């Protein structure tokens, strides 16, 4: 929201900005008590805020005190931050429903008046009337009108949030959101696989990480993963790993436990069956059913056995996404997918933790069968600073190209995936303020990692992140900024590294369409084919069907570097083959509803 004000200057009052910071950032601060705080006169409207590391957002709570001391209308928000951020009340379910009822009523009021003063008075009156039978601090009804209005302001910029839930669960902490059915609190769900570490997934011995969710904590020493080779009959002996990691978070009222363990020493080209959970005889319904997956064979990525990758961004779980989810499920079940890369805007939770749970459940038939490698998007990071994403997905830690040691300060928000003849750079283009951000740490890592892999040779280099370096504008005016100043900023951070290391392609999302460019360097087309080009070609692959829809493009000609574009619901597949010293990638854009090919092209690189 800071960026919305700074870049567009269309917010009506600085007070709206301040209230946003008060309600969002003060709550983030609650999770980081005891941290050193900067000068309270720090200017939140300064461009320097865009260069702050994402984890410094909690400092805003300190500044709210200074704001509140000068602006009386902020005192309820500041008082609320200090008196109400202690978790849900005992009658949380009842209070949550009442709060959401007020929020829904507030939206109705806002649809019928454009006068902010009238809207605030009306919402406050409704709030006090609905809450009159409940013991709740008066401050809630003082804060709620402004909270609903500020979120509705965001809606004007196409951020399609569940306003009652955001206000009541994320801002006012009046809702509890259980991850799972309380009747089976130990039953694993939301099971998903990922490659473990930055080791090559095509190798004699590989590992596969599996993660899952339960409502309640299970037993240490008996919680883990069990697996066996079922390629032939009779199947192999069971192996087990009960050295299980777990973590949780409480933002948005979420209640649940996130577990992860690793299947080790897996042989190439084999079919494994596994299950997860707690084997303790003292707990019933605590293990999953058996699930099967395949390890990559040693010849994956050759003419004999091509490597098959499915790629997408910007999907979610709603009706718009169902054709893509069904098509992807069919392809995984048919053995047509080796692993998946998802470049941000994964579940479109936007602070609604129930949305995360629903997405993960719907995607389990896919994610539990093949590795699902992800990077963050703005819909993961705008609310709660990527926290839910970072807890739910156990992606690899990147290693330092110079020393080989892990970089835990990365937060596993960027890393490499080696798979035979290709390496994917899964990068992070997001700030906690819904603006692009590439930290100096990541920019240096990208420069060094791509240079290292280019010097080593033998692989095609392919980068993915959420926001575009090159894009054609949608009809929505907000994208003028995304394809203008924001894209220019990302080019300044990443483009030269891509060119210097001969990165073949860059896939992004963020815009809800599909776009393909010629190879481009510093806004100039360097070739009209993809045969060992001297600069990357760029793909926007954000049309699989998110809840915000796929808006039309702006009328006019495609830019000189543009080749093809469409808003059809779709996702991509890559068929990768290495022969001699050349890697070829056969890319297809798949129509979600029918499986037909919408667009197809080939990239080749001498390696």
Notes on the structure:
The chain has 607 residues and is an alpha+beta fold. The chain has 2 domains: 2-178, no CATH class; 299-606, Metallo-dependent phosphatases (Purple Acid Phosphatase, chain A, domain 2). It has helices at residues 2-8, 14-30, 60-70, 75-83, 92-111, 116-130, 138-155, 163-171, 322-333, 353-367, 378-381, 387-392, 440-456, 478-500, and strands at residues 177-178, 189-195, 206-214, 223-229, 239-241, 245-247, 254-255, 257-266, 271-278, 291-294, 307-312, 339-343, 371-375, 415-419, 422-426, 460-464, 505-508, 514-517, 520-521, 524-525, 537-541, 562-566, 570-579, 582-591, 597-606. The strands form 6 sheets. A 7-stranded mixed sheet has the order 14-15-16-17-21-18-22, with helices on one face. It has a 6-stranded mixed sheet with strand order 13-12-11-23-24-25, with no helix packed on it. The protein has a 4-stranded antiparallel sheet with strand order 2-3-8-6. Helix 13 (440-456) crosses helix 14. It is globular.
